[in-house]
Amino acid sequence: MASLIEFSLFAPRINGAALIGSFSEWKETPMQKGEDGYFRVQVNIEDGTYQYKFRVQTKSPNFKPDEWIDVIDPYATDVDDERTVGIVRIKDGERIVDTYVWQYDDQPLPQNHELVVYEMHVADFTGGEVDEHRRGKYVDAIEKLDYLKELGINAIELMPVNEYPGDYSWGYKVRHFFATESSYGSTEDLKRFIDECHKRGIRVLMDGIYNHTDEECPLMLIDRNYWYYEHMHYPEDPDNYWGPEFNYSNYDEKLDVKPAWKYVGDVVKYWVEEYHIDGIRYDAVRQLADFEFLNWLATQAKKNCTVQGAPKQFYNIAEHIPDTSDVTRPNGPLDACWHESFRYFAIPTICGEEFDLENLKQVLDPRRQGYETTINVINYLATHDREHLFRELGDRGIFDEAAFTRAKLAAVLLITAMGVPMLWMGEEFGEHKRKSQTVTQPKKIAWALLERQENKDLFEYYKKLIHLRVNNLALQSDNIEFFHENPDANVLGYVRWNDQGGRLVVILNFSDQNFSEYKITHFPDAGTWQDFMADCNVEASSEENQNVLITDLKPYEAKVFIS
């Protein structure tokens, strides 16, 4: 039996629109424009799956005035971009996205301060181990979730999964904001991936691209200057222009609406409610540069993030390069910022190029940079935009055992610093491929490296550290103090603690010197401590009104002691 199904298009400034689709043998059905700026029409449709699009009198300057063109629905939840159509599904007389039934919404998930994040590009996460032409989909990523669980990962940050042009990209030029990237699988596949993550206690954060779009985003084709800046937002900075930019300042007085706010707000609400995501990483926040809008958007995301009617934890993260505490709460709009300065100072230090104690202390204790809490920063050594550590080491002539030694030192630095640690996929076992020079060429991670003992050992090292971070409250706290500084020897010591009395001491040797019976002065306390990596007990003594621990320090070695 057919049911009346409504189709609508918000386009206040255009003069005409019609609906065409497979349900009407592609005959035009005129749409009526209301005073609210919407074109609407109701059509009798049987249950099933159909193709459709709108025919509109465009107001975009790329066309003749009021020229009729065909566009995909900007709110289409599934698309066939090759055929330039949206896809609509009707079941029991209602529009649906799919029939997926969530199974694990009631599973407990970690809080923001407990997170260890893993940045993932779906297309490149799988395939390098079996068949690069077959894998690289949501269902393949599901097969690897137990691996991530074993590693200790409890949050995955997905690079963009909105529909983008073509079948391979990093996804940062979104064409269809409500549709999931079809080359990765179906809407049900993505939901199953997220559900399986939740089953394992892993939160899913989504990359949100709200600064710019693809040139053929339907909004561009319908009425460019209604949603976008007419010209480049920052003409003085052309190197950081990635496509048509949303104009969050544009205000429609007649309808009392900011068009870009409305659209992107609807996008975020949809993804939070439909896909049960647990956070958003906001791309290009420095270029977007509208904190009022970001505050509103982040608030909307949290308001719509519920489980069975009860609020659940959400994480709003800025990619703002250079990083700044201005973008983080309590004074800024978002919860956290990608901590680019951590990498900026950590990499030269690990590579032996410099030892600037003050800069290092600033990024290990981000409160010195104006951040207030541990959840305000996301620390990392590499991202999709930055080279893997092993590539950085190799470019400086550091290979083999020396490289793995420094990678373990870097791992301790990353996991024990104040802030939320994040790994770029493959970092945990020593991936060393150079990052893609173009976003259209696949770059599968080399899973075969795990067959080598030294790479497996690095994985196990990360695994041990991550499990320590997840289970030790001191590493989730806002507490860090530098108690031992030796700039002549390039040695630094700090202590982390929690209010329940747990303490953890980190000693880092950033030199190529071997120190036998190195005296760590001003040690937090005398008595018995556990050498975490060696899995043995050591004694700290009291000497001349200060506590001292004596230990051997190999070149570029890190030690962790737990009380």
Describe the protein's topology.
Elements: E1 3-10, E2 17-21, E3 29-30, E4 32-33, E5 38-45, E6 48-57, E7 68-71, E8 79-80, E9 85-91, E10 94-96, E11 117-120, H1 122-125, H2 138-143, H3 145-151, E12 155-158, E13 162-163, E14 176-180, H4 187-199, E15 203-208, H5 218-227, H6 259-275, E16 279-282, H7 285-288, H8 291-304, E17 306-307, E18 310-311, E19 315-318, E20 336-338, H9 340-350, H10 357-364, E21 377-380, H11 389-395, H12 400-416, E22 420-424, H13 453-471, E23 480-486, E24 491-497, E25 503-509, E26 515-520, E27 527-531, E28 536-543, E29 546-553, E30 558-562
Parallel strand pairs: 11-12, 11-22, 12-15, 15-16, 16-19, 19-20, 20-21, 21-22
Antiparallel strand pairs: 1-5, 2-3, 2-6, 4-5, 6-7, 6-9, 8-9, 9-10, 13-14, 17-18, 23-24, 24-25, 25-30, 26-29, 27-28, 27-30, 28-29
3D structure, described in words:
There is one protein chain. The protein is an alpha+beta fold and 563 residues long. The chain folds into three domains: 3-96, Immunoglobulins (Immunoglobulin-like, Sandwich); 112-211 and 246-471, TIM Barrel (Alpha-Beta Barrel), CATH 3.20.20; 480-562, Golgi alpha-mannosidase II (Immunoglobulin-like). It has 13 helices and 30 strands. The chain has an eight-stranded parallel β-barrel with strand order 11-12-15-16-19-20-21-22. It has an eight-stranded antiparallel beta sheet with strand order 23-24-25-30-27-28-29-26. Helix 6 (259-275) packs parallel to helix 8, helix 9 crosses helix 10 (357-364) and helix 12 (400-416) packs parallel to helix 13 (453-471). The model has no long low-confidence stretch (mean pLDDT 95).
